[in-house]
Amino acid sequence: MLIQLTIRDLGLIERAELDLEGGLQVISGETGVGKSMLLASMSLLAGERPRVDWIRTGAEEALVAGLFVIEDAARARALEEVTGVELEDGELLIERRLRRKGRHRARLNGREVPASLLREAGRRLIEIHGQQSQLELLDPRAQLEILDSFAGLIEERRAFAKEFRRTRALESQVASLQRDAEGRAERRLSLDHLIAELEAADPHPGERDRLEEELALLEGKDQIGQRISEALEAFHESEDSVVDRLASTGRDFAGLEQHRELAEFGALCTSLADQLEDGLRGLRELAEGLDVDPGTLDAMSRRFDLLVSLEERFRRRGDELVRYRDELVEEREALAGAEDSLPALEEELRESILALRKRAQGLTRRRRKALTTLSERIAQELGDLGMDRATFRAERVALESGAIAGCDETGADRIELIFGPNPGEPERPLREIASGGELSRVMLSLKRTLAEAGSVATLVFDEIDTGVGGRLGGALGAKLQEIGSRHQVLCVTHLAQLACYGAGQHRVEKRVIEGRTVTTVERLDEERRALEIAEMMRGTQRTERSVEEAREMLEAARIDRAEEPA
After folding, report:
1. What is the pLDDT of residues 292-308, one digit of tens each?
2. With CB atoms counted within 10 Å of each terminal CB, which end of the chain scores lower, N or C?
3. Range 182-187 average pLDDT
4. Superfamily name and number for 1-137+434-566
């Protein structure tokens, strides 16, 4: 539960600290004094998106901090697993820092976390119910959530949703393969022609450049042959050739080791002679290669022309043609693989749909079983709230159509809450007939019914008394007090009859201090609480009699709390 709430520079709240206890905690105050910012602070702890205009005028940032104590060890461990934050003695401090400039910040026990992780933690700690929550109650999806919470089906439904998403992805994959079958066939035929053309040509890495060099060489073979002959004659084949003279000089100087410079020069001459021999040997081989018959030269020319034409056709040069051929082969194999995998995927989809339908039927059976009990319990709760002649039942409605096997992510059902507030009038869906006061009582009845199954420790109610007069305020208070026996309940109210059932009460007040309007929040002791209850009944015209009446109401509610069975 939330044991401490700290607020800095949020709306009109300059500074506020609330120490809270378990049970029903009441928050009261006149309209317009800033209770909305108090609720906004709690919504920030629950992970709601912050708004810059909530920051107090003149301040650069606002701070909201809530200290929670999780007494249930299993719940604390689950929270640690979700957040990755260690809870010492079951305590978790949530901090939200709103900034006019720069990023807003969220921290759990001092560790900065993303907003998504904060929301995961917040939804396990605090639940806020206001006028919007009552409107959401009219949505069939929200009604299904209520039934599944009551029946303990939330985890099973999450598992179903996971399987549904997997089946939907599989269905999409199969549909894509089936839809593209004709296109794939055309593409494979085109690939066959392209690959056949490239494989017939069979280009090799570096072949195009090598042919281009050889053809250029052969085109000038007479001139090149002449140059080679002259070089061979001058360097090796003539009398007193360069190679002979270098070799002879090397030998002459070889025996002069005692003179280092002469010996080194002799070695250099010998080395140059060897290198020239190697180079001249290459020239001879090149000269022999120039002696190509016309047929071979013609074949080389035609091969080169083929490679050039392929480059122009496929707009790829040299080695890119080789890579392109390999890419086309890979694409053809992938298309063949897609065709081969389609039957297996279709069979997998059929099996997945059958399994999904079976799981949906299991959910439906358990929901039907819970429907009668839920309807009876809520009808009983409504009787306690002055609607003993009203009728209420929860009805299962099958989905008209679903994405897969008549299902969506929640299963194959919708829930419609059927309400008959007035005897003699026909029952109709709750969304069509409920007034604000009726919605408040239905919401409270649902929360009372779900109190045992609920996993959230702190419940916040705003405007739960909308459309409800003082006559039923005590009944609402008693019902909230019952919920408070299992959860911490924070309730903003204007009804004195409801407020007196609180185990504690805070008053929100607006004041002008040094020319600035500020909202203050203070915990009321017993005497000041009696004055507040009297003002809630009579306004500023409270009398000693109204104060005494407030004391009597508080005492009566205290006795009711003491008599409430554990």
Report:
1. 556 666 777 788 888 88
2. C
3. 71
4. P-loop containing nucleotide triphosphate hydrolases (3.40.50.300)
* Token pair 């919708």 in the structure block, residue: 414
Integer Rg of the chain from CA: 44
Cβ distance 446 to 137 under 8 Å? yes
Q: How large is the average pLDDT for residues 73-102?
A: 88
Name which of 78, 91, 6, 76 is nearest 45 in CA terms: 6
Burial of 393 (0-12, 13-18, 19+ CB in 10 A): middle
Q: Which two structure tokens, joined as six digits, stand for 186?
A: 């055309």
- Residue 5 phi/psi, 5-degree rounding, is -125, 125
Q: How far apart are CA 393 and CA 411, in angstroms?
A: 21
Kindly tell me the sign of the dihedral angle through the C-alpha atoms of 422, 426, 429, 432.
Answer: negative
3-state SS class at 487: coil
Residue 321 has pLDDT above 70, yes or no: yes
- Amino acid found at 168: R
The single residue listed with the structure tokens 């419609």 is: 416
Tokens 């016309």, residue? Answer: 294
| CB-neighbour burial class of residue 183 (10 A; exposed 0-12, middle 13-18, buried 19+) | exposed
In angstroms, rounded to a whole number, what is the distance separating the alpha carbons of residues 266 and 251? 7
458-462 and 516-523 as β-strands: parallel, antiparallel, unpaired? unpaired
Residue range 155-183: average pLDDT?
82
Mean pLDDT of the chain: 82
Q: Which residue has the tokens 């989809």?
A: 349
Is residue 226's pLDDT more than 60? no
44: CB partners within 8 A, 6+ apart: 50, 64, 96, 98
Transcribe 142-195 into DSSP letters.
Answer: HHHHHHHHHHT-HHHHHHHHHHHHHHHHHHHHHHHHHHTHHHHHHHHHHHHHHH
Residue 9 pLDDT greater than 50, yes or no: yes
Q: What is the pLDDT of residues 417-471, one digit of tens each?
A: 888 888 888 888 887 866 677 777 888 888 888 776 666 788 888 877 776 776 7
Read off the amino acid at residue 111. R
Instruction: Quick: pLDDT tens for 550-561.
Output: 999 998 888 766
Residues of the chain with CATH 3.40.50.300: 1-137+434-566
